[in-house]
Design goal:
The complex is a heterodimer of chains A (272) and B (276). With 272 residues, chain A is mostly helical. Among the domains of chain A are: 40 residues, no CATH class; 113 residues, Cytochrome P450-Terp, domain 2 (Cytochrome p450-Terp, domain 2, Orthogonal Bundle). Chain A contains twelve helices and five strands. Chain B is mainly α and 276 residues long. Among the domains of chain B are: 30 residues, no CATH class; 142 residues, no CATH class. Chain B has a three-stranded antiparallel beta sheet with strand order 2-3-4. Chain B starts with 7 loop residues before the first strand and ends with a helix. Classes of the chains: A mainly alpha (272), B mainly alpha (276). Chains A and B meet through strand 1, helix 5, helix 6, helix 11 and strand 5 of A and strand 1, strand 2, strand 3, strand 4 and helix 5 of B.
């Protein structure tokens, strides 16, 4: 294609692909594999990772990913913002797919979820590269903080301690996937932040990012593979609300609105 | 964390409860106006929309500009990606909400979507109506400092990378919006469109026009992104319903359009399918 301008004509009724296809009544190709023949002894995580990365993961990688999905699922707690959306969908008797879809979309948040995941992963990989090239970790971390005011994957809303880290590291140790440079770097960054009295501990996102970066995942591959991991916690919150009387999920009385706006006024007083 | 007394702070909305039910509002106030006791029946949808975002009613010229823009954006057309997304929900009998969610999601992106409008507004805020600054920004587009959930921009915001000349509806909309009152960004864009298009190599897009109008109305980047997403939904809804009536059999499936690039087995399977 000479330019993107010619792209529309080139792609008109023409979609070349190596990602797969359905051959009605015959077979399904999944990238370069046959869905029904080549995945009989594979797990859902194998399928997911292969679909995203194009290479079949080693069993321990899929096992680690599954544990990430379990340990880092959205807890079945409807106070958490994404889960609360699902609970609200339940209390209004919306559908399960709508609840799950929108709660997943909402999980692409800034203070938790997918944005810290992908940005934090890039920070770890870039910092690791810079340190390997002779950069000073203290300087790199403090310059990043000065520029961006925070480091995604470090610090946590509500509470600083992250109870998910130890269980995840235990799995990583068991799978012998805990010896990579990125994982070691997380601890070193924490030490830098401690020394600078920044009071920002690494949260689970950094550990997931580090473990997967050590396995060669790019930031966007990390993002793509964990996108749906919150679903395990979202659905119980939806169901909990469905099982209760309609409309009763954390009801708000009128007095719960703390109004800070313009005083009461009449339309007649406004210049039209 | 929770003491039972948590409140929602708002400068937009205030309610007085019914005497017999603290969970039902007797009066609702939007930025001080009694919505159901005063505004209803007296203000237009667009005036109310403006009030919600800006906390003051628009002057007649602002209202006319927003109303004109709202009509221009209401139906991006049956070939638009966001409308196509909604129709895919429609033809397969998916829920109505999913059709709108599909339109919002697909119409949210860097190409012709809410994100593009957001980025355009940022450009307006930084570059104003200074052609030299625009030329510089076009020749040296800023790079994202960090990766994000949004993919990197692949074209200069506000211009259509797949366009040839500026389509007539875009020109017509810009001309009309620039004629409403004396909104400098719109007049400047109308008068400098050709120069900008020459610099980018692409024609101005409707997203670019919408962004200039939102800027002229004084909306922030975030407000403009949200309004753009909202105002484009009517067409998606109508087309989804229409195609639901027609059904999937009368809607393109692109049956032979998928072209294998992989191995011989794949190509052979594709051949068999095409023969069928």
């Amino acid at each position: 294609m000479e330019s993107t301008r010619n792209s529309l004509a080139y792609f008109d009724n023409h979609w070349p692909t190596n990602k797969g296809a359905w051959f009605p009544g015959e077979a399904v190709r999944y990238r370069e594999m046959s869905l029904f023949d080549d995945f009989r002894d594979k797990s859902w995580m194998d399928l997911l990772i292969y679909g995203i990365r194009g290479t079949m993961p080693q069993p321990e990688v899929s096992r680690l990913m599954e544990q990430i999905w379990i340990i880092c699922t959205s807890y079945p707690d409807p106070r958490l913002w994404n889960n609360r959306v699902a609970a609200l969908a339940g209390t209004t008797r919306s559908t399960g797919a709508l609840a799950l879809g929108v709660a997943t979309a909402v999980s692409e948040a800034s203070i938790y979820g997918r944005r810290p995941d992908i940005i934090g992963c890039e920070f770890l990989i870039s910092t690791c590269d810079q340190v390997a090239a002779g950069g000073e970790l203290d300087v790199i971390v403090m310059e990043y903080l000065k520029k961006h005011r925070s480091i995604p994957g470090f610090g946590r809303p509500i509470i600083s301690r992250d109870e998910r880290i130890e269980p995840l590291l235990a799995v990583a140790r068991e799978l012998e996937l805990d010896r990579g440079d990125h994982l070691a770097l997380v601890k070193r960054i924490e030490d830098v932040l401690d020394r600078k009295r920044m009071r920002m501990k690494a949260n689970i996102s950094s550990y997931c990012a580090a473990l997967l970066a050590d396995l060669g995942f790019s930031p966007r591959e990390f993002y793509n593979t964990v996108l749906l991991s919150f679903t395990g916690g979202i659905m119980p919150c939806y169901l909990d609300a469905v099982e209760k009387p309609e409309g009763v999920f954390f009801p708000l009385s009128c007095s719960k609105i703390q109004y800070q706006g313009a005083g009461i006024r009449r339309l007649e007083n406004v210049k039209k | 964390m929770t003491d039972g007394q948590e409140t929602i702070k708002s400068s937009i909305w205030f309610e007085e409860a019914e005497a017999d039910n603290p969970y039902a509002a007797a009066s609702c106030y939007c930025s001080g106006y009694d919505v159901y006791g005063d505004l209803l029946g007296k203000v237009s949808w667009v005036q109310y929309l403006y009030l919600l975002f800006k906390l003051d009613l628009p002057d007649p010229q602002h209202a006319r500009l927003l109303e004109t823009l709202a009509v221009a954006l209401a139906n991006p057309g049956i070939r638009d990606h966001s409308v196509r997304a909604a129709m895919n929900a429609g033809v397969a009998g998916s829920t109505k909400a999913s059709a709108l969610m599909a339109a919002v999601a697909v119409g949210a992106g860097n190409l012709g979507g809410g994100r593009e409008v957001y980025l355009c507004l940022d450009l307006w805020h930084h570059l104003g109506s200074d052609m030299e600054k625009w030329q510089h920004a076009i020749s040296q587009p800023s790079q994202d400092e960090r990766i994000d959930v949004w993919l990197p921009m692949e074209h200069f915001p506000g211009f259509d990378p797949n366009g040839v000349t500026c389509p007539r509806p875009v020109v017509q909309t810009l001309a009309l919006l620039a004629d409403i009152g004396s909104y400098q960004p719109l007049i400047w864009l109308r008068d400098h469109r050709s120069e900008l298009e020459a610099a980018t190599g692409y024609p101005l897009s409707m997203a670019g026009v919408a962004a200039a109008a939102f800027h002229a109305l004084g909306f922030s980047s975030e407000q403009a992104e949200m309004l753009y997403l909202l105002l484009r939904l009517p067409g998606a809804a109508a087309h989804a319903l229409e195609q639901e009536q027609h059904g999937w059999r009368q809607y393109p499936f692109f049956g032979t359009a998928l072209k294998p690039m992989a191995d011989a087995d794949y190509q052979s399977l594709m051949k068999t399918t095409e023969a069928k």
